[in-house]
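User: Some background: our group keeps a shared notebook of sequences we're curious about, and every so often someone picks one and asks for a predicted structure to add to the entry. Today it's my turn. The entry only has the sequence so far, pasted here. Could you supply the structure so I can complete it?
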Amino acid sequence: MTIHLPSKLKKQLNKWLSILLPIALGVYLTFYAYNQFSSAQLQEIKGYFEHANYNYIVLALVIAVFGNMSRAYRWKYSLDHLGYPTTFATNYMAINICYLLNLTVPKSGEISRALILKKYNDIPFDKGFGTIVAERIIDMLVLLSFILAAFFVQFSVVKSFILDNKGWYLAHTCFIWGSYVLMFYCTLFALPQTSSIPFSAVVTAFVVGSIAIAFTNSGFGSYPFMIAKILAVYGIAETAGNAFGWIVWSSQMFLVLILGLLSFLFLPLANRSR
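Assistant: Of course. Here's the predicted structure to add to the notebook entry:
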């Protein structure tokens, strides 16, 4: 017997499932990971948190701030090219709000970026959202390490959203992703156990961590779990790997929360004259 749900109810159900399932997966992975440890190992993990060198975590957060600033400049180039001038402050705060909202409803942040441009700069939603889609296409190409080959294939799709000064646009793209890798690299020095892994492990763990973020809401549960697993391949104890994963994830979410809330507060103030 087939049950046919009303289309409105079906859409609501799909919406809630898209929110709750990633959270449920993150909770499951967290409990699964920590149920594997004995009481002594859990105390060991607690020790990693207590004795970690958080100076490197702070350094990584500073790099993250500059990466977001570069993303705001890169976005401005696309919008200027389409004939819609924006301010750096509005773009930067829209990006911070985007990351904050993505912690709740996956991909809702991208929609919020376009809506903010519509509200404060009167930029049509489809134009603003088109530039964001173009960004995601390019970022995906970088993440998959096919940027050179895929650039020529996809350029006809995204070129209408990239300004004439393509050199600066691509330079900011390189800076953004370079800051991501450098940020991750700095955090490795927070724990002695992870400070000496080879660069090949850095790249592998960075890629795995980036993929993990797509599994649940901004990597909740999945990021520490997968980071611990990949670091174990390089001889890092899973207790240290789990602690490292949670330290990195927690610090990044703290930054997203602070910048997002501040942006919610200051965005209307920065656009009072509009």
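Suggested note for the entry: The mean pLDDT is 82. The radius of gyration is 20 Å.
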